[in-house]
Amino acid sequence: MAKKTVEAVDVAGKRVLIRVDFNVPLKGGEITDARRIEAALPTIKSVIDRGGKAVLMSHLGRPEGTGYESKYSLEVVAKKLSDLLGKPVGFPSQDCTDDAAANAVNSMADGDVVLLENLRFHNGETEGLKDLSVKLAALGDVYVNDAFGTCHRPHASMLGVPLAMEGKPRVAGFLVEREIKYLTDAIKTPEKPFVVVLGGAKVSDKLAAIEHLLPMANSILVGGAMAYTFLKAQGKDVGDSRVETGRIDDAKRAIDLAAKLDSELYLPKDHVCGKAFDEMGGGDIEICGEHIKDGYMGLDIGPKTQSEYNHVIHQAKTVVWNGPMGVFEWRPFKVGTEQVAKAIVEATSNGATSIVGGGDSAAAIEKFGLADQVSHVSTGGGASLEMLEGKSFQAVEVLDDA
Question: Is the Cα torsion angle 341, 215, 182, 60 positive or negative in sign?
Fold first, then answer.
């Protein structure tokens, strides 16, 4: 899926319309985590250092889509970006398509940066409306997609704009290029043994990924609350653990599929259990064996399972991780997830390619201070999961081939 990148385009003197993902967390009007802004810097700097005019567009939060809402304004992001770049960032208007925005873009000098206001102040963004797409497309001579976290959504800025710019360069930014390299290319031809670690709350979220990856993977290790639907399907006692009763037959199908393939599906053999879903497990935390008694729920994988999973991961040459093994935010139930993270780091140091999906897995490996010790941490939770399911994205397909 090799796509032409921004590096391959002569941007000097051109308005380069870059779809970035500046959907950052805010608290009290302040940015609490600027990683998404920082992740876009290489693409932005490539454009302005080569004499291009960087016109940035993004969404932030979930406004109503009926006009300006101050709490979702990107103005605070413009100020942060200005600090990071060490130069002014234009922020012309409360509307990304009005005359003030167009005039600001058309009066840019080479090397300037302008950030347009929140795209989702228009409901046409999420609905992919042509009118909004055409107005935004008129602001650029080159289109760059560097917003991987939104690549799975056919929104106006992601799909409508590049379609409206047919005949002009439409390329990937460095962030999207990297995500494609790891989440598609590395998985398509993985070096074996190929180990997949899947966790999280719901089987329904990961079933498509399991079924897509089983024929390719040597081992799939399952943890998190989703494991209890699989264990229930095997006839195990799971106590009060979370089970998706409507997905038990689906779990049986995945177990049967693994048995027919040259792939092993690992499920927890013991558990860290509590009597209640809270930070102290209802004041009664126990290590449960293969079966969990009534009144207890599994909140993390147990020591035997941690040891077995570590052993499998250490042998991997390619390892993909999406979803925590337990409620890692709470100290008594973080060990399984932390052990998996450390095992992946160790496999990486031994030459394995390691890919951590976005969302909770990315949050966990950041929390443990290990994010810089794996090959790749994805910036997109939903998008990375859909790529692991083998889905293709129209927003990527429309870009120019390398």
Answer: negative
